[in-house]
Queue: 4 jobs
Job 1
Amino acid sequence: MAIRVGHTWLLYMPPGLRSGDVVLTFKVGANVNTDENWAKHAFCPSATISRREYAVLAKGVPTKEATAMKEGTALRALRRDNNTKSINKIRPLAHKKSVRAAVVLHLSSVNEAQALCRNGLVWNAMVYDCEPFDASIQYRQCFKCY
């Protein structure tokens, strides 16, 4: 199913998933209602909207700073220092014994994620290297090797 206004395609809906979920993909720049209640009215009261996120891994952050990051205050400071509005979540990846840690940042804008990878993450007057992150390629260390 697709929705078209004039000569512009705004929405593409592929066939339903095996789980019964429905995926709606809107064209970039389409004027989409940001009110989340429309999904509850259109589908069912338990319907939710899941927005796409882009994960970026910041490397070399001191473990004390990474583990001390609190969602609210750290998000505001990171948004301000890096001139971005799209950082949604922060998740530190740190071992207790290590000196340096990595921090996963979830962003809603691909352009801002690319800018962080290009320019680095500014945190407490330091610049940390960033790279795209995908949890499916995260390595696991066995307990015998640890």
Job 2
Amino acid sequence: MAITGGHGHPHISYLADTPEHGREGTRKNIDDGAKATKIAATGGVTEAKGIGHAGKPEVSEETMRAICEEAHAEGILVAAHAQSVEGVKRALRAGVDTIEHGSDTDDETIALFRDNPAPLRGWSALVPTIQAALPLVKLYRSISGIDEVVHSNAELVLESMFAGIRTALDANPLESMRAPRQPRAVIAHGLLIKEQQIDRIADIDAHLDTL
């Protein structure tokens, strides 16, 4: 689900310019057999037209809330592509169940992840897909084929994601363990983070910085 000309529109999304559009698109997804749905809450890296565009809020909070209400009524989880502090907060307040990519965080954001009646389960999870930005930052542009604007946005987004992960881990992630049957997973205030993967990525990132 995306606004006109927004991240993913029109190639891979239904229109979500208004709450009515959001509900209609969500119902279409459900009727087509979708088991989950996703909102482009903010702009993305690859279509950025200016530095700082990635992470700019796009789908309104009211429209995201309508999408969440429609999906949750059928027991369906809602994910949100969100790459800025404000974009993440808006999506969480609207009731999304997962934040894809993520950003730096603060106490208000952590509280929304931890305990919020709007998501289907009363809490939300972070899926820090670092690979969405890492190759764009670390590969030579002659290989990736991206321009300077996209590269700069990828750098901003990647650093913000790392900052958010560090903040979450520093805030005593074991305090809110919600998945005792997943020994390799840590859920910090509802933020799902695989420790082993994060450590490996950090090692890779440190190595690439020496190249």
Job 3
Amino acid sequence: MPSSPCTLCNWGRLHASPESPPLVGSLLVSRLFMYPDQSYYGRMALVCSRHVEDVLTLPQPDYRAMCDDLHIAAQLMSALFPESRLNLAQLGNREAHLHWHIIPRRSGDYNEGAAPWPHPVVDIGYERLRALAEQASRLLEQIANRNRSPL
């Protein structure tokens, strides 16, 4: 398979290797990854499964599904880190591929009370990142199944 110049497309192709952040799980129209920079411990990225550059080029049904995926990812983050407040950010300034940053914020964080950027980059190592992804993946499955159940 040819390599794509898009970093986030490559995350999906390489998710089983240390060259890409660990995959937490696949949702309706997106994939949830542990973010390589763990300056905010537990940070994840929700990445559209296909290459779409912004929300305006995403068909309305897919946009709704992406919002459902984002809601599930936020529930996951809240369950993993109940003491945190969530920052959800969709920017696209550096990577022209539709994605959201899901950032747990805690008292005492770098940039406390302000936007999460800029910040020092923290590399916790691939094995710790993978272990965190596995823990999140187990919980994600429970949350996704609960969200699919009729009320």
Job 4
Amino acid sequence: MKTVKRTIGVLLVVFLVMSLVACSKENVSIAVKDKKNPVLSEKSEVYSKFHKVKDAAQETYIYAKADALEKELAITKSKLILKDESIKYSDKEWEICEIYDSVKVKDNTSFDGPVVKGIVDEISEKANKENYIIIIDETIVRIEKLFNSSNKIFKDASEKLATAESDLEKPKQEFKKAQRDAGIISEDLSICKPVIYLYPTSITPISVSLSEPSKIAHSYPKYENGWNVIAEPNGTLVDQNTGRQLYSLYWDGKNYSPTDMSEGFVIKGKDTINFLEEKLAILGLSEKEAEEFIIYWLPKMENSKYVFVNFRTTEEINEYMELNISKTPDTLIRVYMDFKTLESYIDIPEQQLIPVTRTGFTVVEWGGCQIPQN
């Protein structure tokens, strides 16, 4: 009996020892596991942050790429703007319409955010969402394919435009020849006394240039690839090349084509002052600018029995000579007066003038041309 009890006791001791050992191992395992868990958690958090940053970077890249393509297309489109006046001289309207139709195709292909996002979403559904490189690569391929397609349209349109402009040149020259033969224009007819005033809202350096310097006959200060001045709000200018103080920029031009006299005003010469004061105010000239205008033209008009007068539109003036200004004006006023002295009254439709209100940075230019009697 004692032997049995001793045996049972030994077994109990062994059992207890084994239990303690097992518990110890389990605790060690738990401890190790507890030590590993923060590490795994940290890795998971870093991984998550990495993907968030990566996703944001990739999305930014895609939109930046699309924006760059959009700007490139905008530049291409701006080169394909066809001047409306060219239609006057050509019977090739169908080519011009075809060019406009090509431009309209581009208008329906916009590289804005929603379009790009739609492409990304569509590819994301098919691709493994963890494989962002595939998504990006496929997206860029799709965008570039879209761009190349639109670019081809513009390349074709550009070629058609070049052909159309080339074909327009002959009708233009024939039209001008017909005008010369009819005595309407003369190759040595001049646009006289255009002067340019600048009125910025604060003291500002400004560069001014003319689109066709070959037509300039005289200028002051001397025109050398344009004028560079410091302009003050009161109109005072300082020539940056010479340091001289000016109140305007002067030039006059050659090879000018005056109006065809299809509309305008016919006034008595003795009414010139009242007429010009009224009309120049409508067109936006200040009293000081109008005074200089009237003083220059009055001796050429006042002593005539009648005078025909037409004020050219900005579009017509730009066709002859565009004015390029480094800082875009809020208000641009260009007044070119064509006039012809008459021995008797003629009845023509009266020209409708659009009133001008000056706001912000204002640029004013005035000039004119006396149409010869022949």
